Amino acid sequence: APEFFNSIDACGKDFTVRPITNCGKGDPMQQMMMGNGGPSIRGVATVKSAGA
After folding, report:
1. Which pLDDT tens digit goes with each residue over 1-52?
2. What is the pLDDT of residues 20-31, one digit of tens each?
């Protein structure tokens, strides 16, 4: 993960949060409004073969 985050060279000004209906925890099931999101980002990747 640090290699990926260090490779980010651009971050957009957009920010989108998508709703998640519940957190899926508890017995009985407990519901709570949640969200997941963030800005568009661009990173540089190095693709390696499995044998490298």
Report:
1. 788 888 899 999 999 998 887 777 777 877 777 888 999 999 987 777 777 5
2. 877 777 778 777
Helices (H), 1-52: 2-6
User: What tokens were used for 10?
Assistant: 């651009």
> Which residues, 6 or more positions from 4, have their beta carbon under 8 angstroms from its beta carbon?
43, 45
Annotate 5-27 with b (16+ C-beta within 10 A) or e (fewer): eeeeeeeeeeeeeeeeeeeeeee
Helix (H), strand (E) at residue 11: strand 8-11
Distance of CA 52 to the CA centre of its chain: 27
pTM recorded for the entire structure: 0.52
